[in-house]
Amino acid sequence: NAGVTQTPKFQVLKTGQSMTLQCAQDMNHNSMYWYRQDPGMGLRLIYYSASEGTTDKGEVPNGYNVSRLNKREFSLRLESAAPSQTSVYFCASSVMAGEQYFGPGTRLTVT
Amino acid sequence: AQSVTQLDSQVPVFEEAPVELRCNYSSSVSVYLFWYVQYPNQGLQLLLKYLSGSTLVKGINGFEAEFNKSQTSFHLRKPSVHISDTAEYFCAVSPSSNTGKLIFGQGTTLQVKP
Q1: B103 vs chain A: nearest CA distance in angstroms?
Q2: Which residue of B has its CA nearest to A90?
Q3: Among A111, A109, A103, which Cα is nearest to A35's?
Q4: Positions of E strands within chain B
Q5: Best A29, A32, A37, A89 residue to mutate vs chain B (most B CBs within 10 Å)
Q6: 8 Å CB contact of A105 and B101
Q7: Each residue's pLDDT tens digit, A59-79
Q8: Distance CA B82, CA B94 (A)
Q9: Radius of gyration over every alpha carbon of chain B, rounded to an integer in angstroms
Q10: Measured between alpha carbons, how far is B26 from B12 in angstroms, rounded to an integer?
Q11: What percent of chain A has pLDDT over 70?
Q12: Is B53 within 8 Å of chain A by CB?
């Protein structure tokens, strides 16, 4: 039982490049989330998916897109990376309100 | 809308001393409350949660928190800390009738000194 897994662990991009962050959970959770973590700002919600087939914007969705591929997988795409998107990205999942399980994170640097 | 304020960005404390990490929240609806811990270079782990019932909640690693509705607070306490408790701690709130979205505070870094 791996919980929530994320790939890659680290990534360096140049401004304007695109990439997809992958997330998968094996806990049969309905809801999945993408956050970014920046120093002194806690975690901010980018997008979430309450159930398979649905996605909604969170607090900071600009510059990102998501795909809920199936119940297990929820990917985050940066179409044209910008230095302001340098951050640590966390995926999470939950079966009930509030109690979320987090992946290990992806450290992204955009130069 | 909900918001969470963690009143201290850093809390230095000596090993075996007690500690309190403070969290206040704002909400016009009833909420669930959570504390998460993040060890260096790791994801977040749930420490404890308040959903309903007893206002004193016990979590893992000897931590506990008390929900105070009148003061809209959910402070985290531990009577005796260890070096291994050095980490960042996040308070979070979720409306009790939604999809499970969490609103996080800015985090408090607990630094336990020998």
Answers
A1: 8
A2: B43
A3: A103
A4: 3-6, 10-14, 19-21, 23-26, 31-38, 44-50, 56-58, 64-68, 73-78, 87-95, 103-104, 108-113
A5: A37
A6: no
A7: 999 999 999 989 999 999 999
A8: 30
A9: 14
A10: 27
A11: 96
A12: no
